[in-house]
Amino acid sequence: MGKKSHQLTPFDSKGNMLDYTGMGPEEGDGIDWRPREPFQETMTLTGMTRGRSSVKLDWLTADGRHYSMFASDFMDLVLRGDLGAGTAGLTLSGIWLTCKRGSDYGVMLAIKEES
């Protein structure tokens, strides 16, 4: 994969971010490779999964699109105090960024929107 692949994030035809593809943008038939740009969104935490090399948290937007977050980025939220105390049914709004670690893709909260 070339340097350009580090600047793009893969999505499926329904707008769900793919956390792994095994290929680069030049090979991604049927994959929508989008530039990594900050985006405004509200997401709800729905679960946690274990992949080939990482633990990820699963997030869902109000319109049903899925995103994955690396456990290390979730810990950053906890340590920054962005979760608040006693949060049940965790939903966060703000500016999000996609990121790449190794061959996997994820999302991180860059700026939390105050409620």
How would you describe what is shown here?
There is one protein chain. The protein has 115 residues and is mainly beta. The protein has one domain (3-112). The chain has one helix and seven strands. The chain has one helix spanning 71-80; strands at 8-11, 32-35, 39-50, 55-61, 66-70, 91-101, 104-112. The strands form two sheets. A five-stranded antiparallel sheet has the order 5-4-3-6-7. It has a two-stranded antiparallel ribbon with strand order 1-2. Strand 6 (91-101) and strand 7 form a beta hairpin. The protein is globular and about 40 Å long. The chain starts with 7 loop residues before the first strand and ends with a strand.
Number of domains: 1
State the shape: globular
Identify the strand order in the major beta sheet: 5-4-3-6-7
> Which residues sit in consecutive blocks of at least 5 with pLDDT less than 50?
none
Arithmetic mean of pLDDT: 83
> What is the ordering of alpha helices and beta strands?
EEEEEHEE
- Annotation field: number of helices: 1
SSE-based structural type: mainly beta
Report the portion of residues in β strands.
Answer: over 45%
Largest sheet, in brief, is: 5 strands, antiparallel
Round the Cα radius of gyration to an integer and report it.
14 Å
Number of strands: 7
Helix content: under 10%
N-to-C CA distance = 41 Å
